[in-house]
């Protein structure tokens, strides 16, 4: 994606664009591929055929009285990671693998969960519909236990099929909201203008599809809480501090680290100080 700033810093962004283009060109010359099989979007027929082949292998194993198993790239091993000057860390082409066995007490539950999510993916691709990771988790939250389990299994399936997650018709959870001096074009060609709006714009799930970003913002303010973000919008913060961009991130509560008792006591002490008490809410945040 290329930035097209409208301020005097245009030359800086032009340098960044040239640097990015040179890195991509170097990667192509080296014949490298991004992790998990690259970013090429597979067709629906390719995804369906890959899942059908996996199920067929399971049926054949059962017919031979053998315990079926999934062979998955070992993403947790540093032996499978290499560093390239042009792109940074990426998985090696011939990485070690691990097996998720159906007859092992340690992995039988994960084997069943992979089958369940594969079934969900097959239905999504077949019906040409999309779902977020969070949607899949809530289809049976008691079975999955927590969101991290779903996220890891989807990543394993993506590597096993050698296809990017979007080809599986799975989107990440909503990225949050954005407001301020920014214009861009979404993957389907929709033009979005966040400048001068009284309401925020939802950040698209497929951020890789965003292109032609245009901004002259001097800074980006990241707000954790949606309520504080809305209060800043109501106070016309973006126009008062223009040019700027304000973003709120949608972070699942089960992924947040709770405050310790000592941290909470320290925070309560700070909030009681006269200087903090008299400040507007956005300054406290």
TrEMBL record:
Keywords: DNA-binding, Isomerase, Magnesium, Metal-binding, Nucleus, Topoisomerase
Entry annotation: catalytic residues: 138 (o-(5'-phospho-dna)-tyrosine intermediate)
PROSITE patterns: TOPO_IIB
Domain Spo11/DNA topoisomerase VI subunit A N-terminal: 109-170
EC assignment: 5.6.2.2
GO-annotated cellular components: chromosome, telomeric region; nuclear chromosome
Occurrences of domain Meiosis-specific protein Spo11 (ranges): 2-44
Gene Ontology MF annotations: ATP binding; DNA binding; DNA topoisomerase type II (double strand cut, ATP-hydrolyzing) activity; metal ion binding
Primary location group: nucleus
Highest taxon, organism lineage: Eukaryota
InterPro entries membership: Meiosis_Spo11, Meiotic_Spo11, Spo11/TopoVI_A, Spo11/TopoVI_A_N, Spo11/TopoVI_A_sf, TOPRIM_Topo6A/Spo11, WH-like_DNA-bd_sf
Domain Topoisomerase 6 subunit A/Spo11 TOPRIM positions: 219-249
Catalytic activity: ATP-dependent breakage, passage and rejoining of double-stranded DNA
Gene Ontology terms: biological process: double-strand break repair involved in meiotic recombination; male meiosis I; meiotic DNA double-strand break formation; meiotic DNA double-strand break processing; meiotic telomere clustering; oogenesis; ovarian follicle development; protein localization to chromosome
Cofactor(s) demanded: Mg(2+)
Subcellular location: Nucleus
Coiled coil regions, renumbered to chain: none
PANTHER family, per database record: MEIOTIC RECOMBINATION PROTEIN SPO11
Family: Belongs to the TOP6A family.
Name of the protein: DNA topoisomerase (ATP-hydrolyzing)
């Amino acid at each position: 994606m290329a930035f097209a700033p409208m301020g005097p810093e245009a030359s800086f962004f032009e340098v960044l664009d040239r640097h990015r283009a040179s890195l991509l060109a170097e990667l192509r010359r080296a014949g490298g591929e991004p992790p998990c099989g690259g970013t090429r979007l597979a067709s629906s027929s390719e995804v369906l055929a890959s899942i059908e082949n996996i199920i067929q292998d399971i049926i054949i194993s059962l017919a031979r009285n053998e315990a079926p198993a999934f062979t998955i790239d070992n993403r947790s091993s540093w032996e499978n990671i290499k560093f390239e000057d042009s792109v940074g860390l990426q998985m090696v082409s011939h990485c070690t693998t691990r097996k998720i066995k159906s007859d092992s007490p340690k992995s039988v539950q994960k084997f069943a969960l992979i089958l369940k999510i594969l079934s969900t993916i097959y239905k999504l691709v077949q019906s040409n519909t999309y779902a977020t990771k969070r949607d899949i988790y809530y289809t049976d939250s008691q079975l999955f236990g927590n969101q991290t389990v779903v996220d890891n299994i989807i990543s394993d399936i993506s590597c096993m099929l050698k296809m990017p997650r979007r080809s599986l018709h799975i989107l990440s959870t909503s990225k949050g909201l954005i407001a301020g001096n920014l214009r861009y074009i979404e993957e389907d060609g929709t033009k979005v203008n966040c400048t001068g709006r009284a309401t925020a714009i939802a950040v698209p799930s497929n951020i890789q599809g965003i292109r032609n970003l245009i901004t002259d913002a001097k800074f980006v303010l990241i707000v954790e809480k949606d309520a504080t973000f809305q209060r800043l919008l109501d106070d016309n913060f973006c126009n008062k501090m223009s040019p700027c961009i304000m973003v709120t991130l949608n972070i699942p509560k089960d992924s947040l680290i709770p405050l310790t008792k000592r941290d909470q006591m320290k925070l309560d002490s700070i909030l009681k100080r006269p200087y903090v008490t008299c400040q507007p809410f956005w300054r406290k945040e």
